[in-house]
Amino acid sequence: MQTPEDDLSLVEVLRRHYAPTIEMLRRAVRRCPDDLWDARREGAAFWQHAYHAIFWLDVWLRDSPEGFLPPPFHNRDALLETGLAPSVTLSREQVEGYLAQVDARCAAFFGELTPDMLVQESEFFGKVWTVADRILVQIRHVQHHVGHMNCMLKRGAGEAVPWLGYNE
User: Fold this and answer.
1) pTM of the predicted model, to two decimals?
2) How far apart are the C-alpha atoms of 44 and 8, rounded to whole Å?
3) What are the structural domains of the chain?
4) By the 8 A CB rule, do 165 and 18 touch?
5) Nearest Cα to 36, choosing from 159, 147, 163?
6) Cα-atom radius of gyration of the chain, to the nearest Å?
7) What is the secondary structure of 86-120 as a DSSP string?
8) How does 99-124 read in b/e, with b if 16+ C-beta sit within 10 Å?
9) What is the CB-side half-sphere exposure of residue 42 using CA atoms within 13 A?
10) Which of 58, 104, 129, 146 is most enclosed, with most CB atoms within 10 A?
11) Tens of pLDDT along 44-91?
């Protein structure tokens, strides 16, 4: 019979779905061949999808967007929502480094969460969100871009990043 001590907290459930999502993003960035990195065959470049997902993860998985500072190499044109062709191409090293930095910060964010904190509300960009909502939206958002990047990898390199579930 299961006891209350055996129950997983919702924080742990969210964390164990966040982790493979980020790992799939990391693997997609590493797998992308050089000739596909900045190709704009399907609109935005591969690296733009990765950067966009990482950037917004960095913004949303924190206590507040107030005081957020983008990375030093940030170029607003690199974000997909501008619809502009970026004037610079971010290197794989910049994208991987930023992902590592954001992942480490998010690990600390998860480490400080308690189940009660998941339902706390705060305002982000004029709307009220719970912490759990922001986590779930970012898992979905990153996975959306990983899916697009996988499509680009499959078409351009013949092989996509395999699905990872939690505990894999």
Assistant:
1) 0.91
2) 40
3) 4-157 (1.20.120.450)
4) no
5) 159
6) 17
7) PSS---HHHHHHHHHHHHHHHHHHHHH--GGGGG-
8) beebbeebeebbeebeeeebeeeeeb
9) 15
10) 146
11) 999 999 999 999 999 999 988 888 999 999 988 888 777 778 889 999
